[in-house]
Amino acid sequence: MRRNSFRAKQLVSALRRRGLDVAPRRLERWCADGLGAAEDLTLEAQTAHYAEFATLSGSGTDADRTARRLAARGYACPRLRSAIMRSLDIEGPGEPVPKLDLSTGPSGDAPFAFVEQLARSLRGTGGLEPAAAKIVTALEQNAQRYEQSLGEPRGDVMHAFLVNELCHLFGDNIYDPEPIAAVLNLDPKSIDGDELISFLNELRIDPPAIEEEYRSAPIDDVVYVAGALLSIAPEVIRHLGIVGLIDAEVEDLAATFAPLGVHFARLLRARFDDFPLVLPSAEPSPALVPVGSGSDDPLALRAVVREPLVDARLVEPAALSSVHREDDV
Predict the structure, then answer these.
(1) What span, in angstroms and rounded, lies between the C-alpha atoms of 29 and 79?
(2) What is the pLDDT of residue 101?
(3) What is the pLDDT of residue 94?
(4) pLDDT at 271
(5) What pLDDT shows up at residue 109?
(6) Cβ atoms of residues 104 and 91 within 8 Å
(7) Bridge pairing between strands 286-290 and 303-308
(8) Under-50 pLDDT residues of the chain
(9) Nearest Cα to Cα of residue 41 among 81, 1, 84
(10) Where are the domains of the chain?
(11) How far apart are CA 133 and CA 110, in angstroms?
(12) Cα distances (Å, whole numbers) of residue 85 to 37, 92, 217, 261, 280
């Protein structure tokens, strides 16, 4: 968008009516940085986009992070996909994850030792971004909460959780659901272990397919799932016991992992006819609300239909009432 274009003048006037003083050169700069609204949107929709962006912009604001936060609030921009990929260091063609022989026979000894060593290397919060460190700290505290119930120290519970997840990643099945339940703050003695194993093994992790979602998932799907993740974030944060996350971090995480959510939404939709999350690329989507607070399984990521979602780019930001608010601009 050029600063002297008719649309720029329209937007400046529309934003001024909302109490926002945005110069035409700023609109031009935002668009040049890939943060502008789609050109085919109505004036009203573009005004909403730039009004939202104005609340996030400021001196020293990271453009990639702003693109991700905009997505979590329901607004797409051209920079979004690359901003998400850069946040996870996804570059160049993906490499397939090898399928390891993790059988209980002698041929599985060396691969399993590799998995154990890898799990040990993933322990702790060293080198993690602040938001990720807060999440890992909460998961370790959950492991400690159930260490007496499982008869294992916290470190062993966390290690078993990582080994299970890595085995799943490398093509084997989950073999012990109790550490997974404990780390996710579910009473390991109250779950149906066989049912949990069956469900997790149905959702086979396929790293190349997930990476492909990051590269090519429709942006409307990514924005829609980012908003859905943001809407359930307060309940998930409360359940897992994560402390200290601010709104900016929650919005960033919701967008960063939205393509992963798109991948699992496709899997669940294909295997369960009544799975309620319908991606915009499939058909007009329902708005999502988390299933009742205080539910025994708040991590189930279920939803109920509330109202039709006309345009994922126009969704109002979800309230994060249980998350501490602190602006980062």
Answers:
(1) 13
(2) 73
(3) 62
(4) 81
(5) 79
(6) no
(7) antiparallel
(8) 284-329
(9) 1
(10) 106-207
(11) 31
(12) 20, 11, 12, 15, 21
